[in-house]
Amino acid sequence: MNWPKHGGQPAKVGRQFNSKETNRSDWIDFSANIHPFGPPNWIKSIVADSMAAISVYPDPEYEEASRRLAELNDVSPDQVLVTNGGAEAIFMTAKLFEGKRALIVQPTFGEYEQACLHYRVETRDVFYDNGFRVPLKELERQMAWADVVYICRPNNPSGTVISERDIRVLLERCEETETYLVVDEAFADFVSGTDATLTRMLSQFNSLILLRSLTKMYSIPGLRIGYLLASSTITAKLRCWQVPWSVNGIAGEVVKALPNDDPFVSEARTFVKEELVRVRERLTELRFYVSPSQVNFFLLYDLDAPNKTEELFAFLAKNSIIARHTHNFKGLNGHYLRFAVKSAEDNDKLLACLAAWRHHV
Ligand SMILES: Cc1ncc(COP(=O)(O)O)c(C=O)c1O
């Protein structure tokens, strides 16, 4: 089996299990963890109306876009760096620590390690426990070694959120050990409540660097929009290193138009929260472990057939359902599958298929 590095490639994965049906297109893709309903209409209209933006260079400083993001996050524009997706923001932080040392809290998104490798940052892993709780004491101890710690909050692939109290402990420790804390908030839009993001901690801790992405909530992986929030000293350095015109003009137009309190976002949050409760209840009845996720995806582990994850993956694929394998998430080693929370209809298909699997094994 040729396991792809990222989700969102249903046909490529599905074909490997259904080799005779190469032209199939009816895959239900649970492997990509983006908003289930596609982009909002306001983004579609801006993209449709932005033809003029392709025949001019974008503003190399992205001043208007940075100002809008600063307003929305209540920070100064010089604390904002607009990036070509969250992925560029991740790579830019690794550049900041070129040749130094990073701790990565695992299992998590593989691009932190990839970016560190690219910039020759030496890495060490610290692992969540079985319930995806952060190993606070061990992290505090290892921080004396590290120049930077990477934490994904909410974490991909578990969907779990480290408490604000634990983050504060780590930031206080950062001050003692002169370590930076990079927190990837790519999925923070899906979390309700005031501690969904750590933005207000930026004014208290210069060591905090936040990474954001518009990809997940707005379902726009093809537009490539992300940004980074940090002290102005850090963003000034990164601005000098960023590839010129890294963010395309159409993406820039979307950022400038980002609304306050977008109802699309609050509706998505409510929908995902309710669906997650419903799906978790049914899966628990069916004797599957579901990670204590707060967002639009979760990890699943078959309590009755823990050694049959690959068979389960194949069973789902034969029924048009594509899960995200976990072979390249450190510590999970393929024993779990990750699923997005999709429309109620698609979630029902998943639940029916997993119930059928119960009778099958
Ligand atoms: C945790 C996390 N951060 C960042 C990204 C990158 O997102 P993008 O570059 O599309 O904004 C992803 C994509 O899967 C992700 O899972």
UniProtKB/TrEMBL annotation:
Q: Which keywords belong to this entry? A: Cobalamin biosynthesis, Lyase, Pyridoxal phosphate
Which pathway does the database say it acts in? Cofactor biosynthesis; adenosylcobalamin biosynthesis
Q: What is its EC number?
A: 4.1.1.81
Where's the Aminotransferase class I/classII large domain?
26-352
Q: Which InterPro entries match?
A: Aminotransferase_I/II_large, CobD, NHTrfase_class1_PyrdxlP-BS, PyrdxlP-dep_Trfase, PyrdxlP-dep_Trfase_major, PyrdxlP-dep_Trfase_small
Reply yes or no: does the keyword NAD apply. no
Q: Which reaction does it catalyse?
A: O-phospho-L-threonine + H(+) = (R)-1-aminopropan-2-yl phosphate + CO2
Q: Which cofactor does it need?
A: pyridoxal 5'-phosphate
Q: Which enzyme class, named as a word?
A: lyase
Role according to the record: Decarboxylates L-threonine-O-3-phosphate to yield (R)-1-amino-2-propanol O-2-phosphate, the precursor for the linkage between the nucleotide loop and the corrin ring in cobalamin.
List the GO molecular function terms. Answer: pyridoxal phosphate binding; threonine-phosphate decarboxylase activity
Name listed for the protein in its UniProt record: threonine-phosphate decarboxylase
Q: Which GO terms describe its biological process?
A: cobalamin biosynthetic process
Q: Which organism is it from?
A: Salipaludibacillus agaradhaerens
